[in-house]
């Protein structure tokens, strides 16, 4: 059953930040951990049309607008087939452990619009990471389905560490959805009408 959240905060991986309330509808947020591997499912409805949302999701040079823990993002290369190689730098903490984390990913968009981002472990702080998402129209709103699996290549404190990571991923996803919705509204809001002087 769908749950309407007053969005709290979100690190796409680590971090904590308070976000304003929004009309985002969270259908599902699931984060599991097993033997060092995290599996994420996130299903959300954004209160904005797909023509506003899709360009924001695919603006890989400006992902800092969507998450407070993303400190830098940029497109490294664009392939002849449309695939892109991107780099994302994150900065976050678990308990007293803080780290700058880098991901270099190969991003490809299928004919049906499904996007897959596979992380290059040789140039990233993950031994494995793959993200998949769909951006779908639903009446005047946008339905985003996101799935990910990743294995950190950096130290996560045992016992309580994975629990904190899972909690922060959930709030980070919800905050990103809230920011996405706000950006879609702000960037397409009508300009203020010019003030006309009374010359009489």
UniProtKB/TrEMBL annotation:
The UniProt record lists the keyword ATP-binding: no
Record flagged with keyword Lyase: no
Pfam family, one: Polyketide_cyc2
Leader peptide range in chain numbering: 1-23
Keyword tags: Signal
Protein name per UniProt: Ribosome association toxin RatA
Organism: Candidatus Muproteobacteria bacterium RBG_16_65_34
């Amino acid at each position: 059953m769908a749950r309407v959240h007053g969005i709290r905060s979100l690190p796409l991986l680590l971090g904590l930040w308070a976000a304003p309330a929004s009309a985002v509808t969270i259908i599902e947020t699931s984060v599991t951990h097993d033997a060092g591997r995290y599996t994420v499912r996130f299903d959300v409805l954004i209160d904005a049309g797909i023509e506003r949302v899709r360009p924001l999701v695919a603006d890989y040079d400006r992902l800092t607008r969507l998450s407070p823990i993303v400190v830098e993002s940029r497109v490294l290369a664009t392939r002849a087939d449309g695939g892109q190689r991107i780099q994302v730098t994150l900065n976050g903490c678990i308990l007293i452990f803080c780290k700058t984390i880098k991901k270099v990913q190969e991003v490809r968009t299928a004919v049906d619009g499904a996007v897959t981002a596979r992380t290059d472990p040789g140039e990233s702080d993950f031994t494995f990471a793959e993200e998949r998402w769909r951006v779908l129209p639903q009446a005047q709103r946008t339905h985003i389905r996101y799935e990910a699996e990743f294995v950190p290549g950096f130290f996560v404190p045992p016992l309580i560490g994975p629990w904190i990571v899972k909690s922060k991923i959930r709030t980070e996803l919800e905050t990103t959805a809230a920011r996405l919705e706000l950006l879609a509204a702000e960037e397409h809001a009508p300009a203020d009408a010019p003030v006309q002087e009374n010359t009489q």
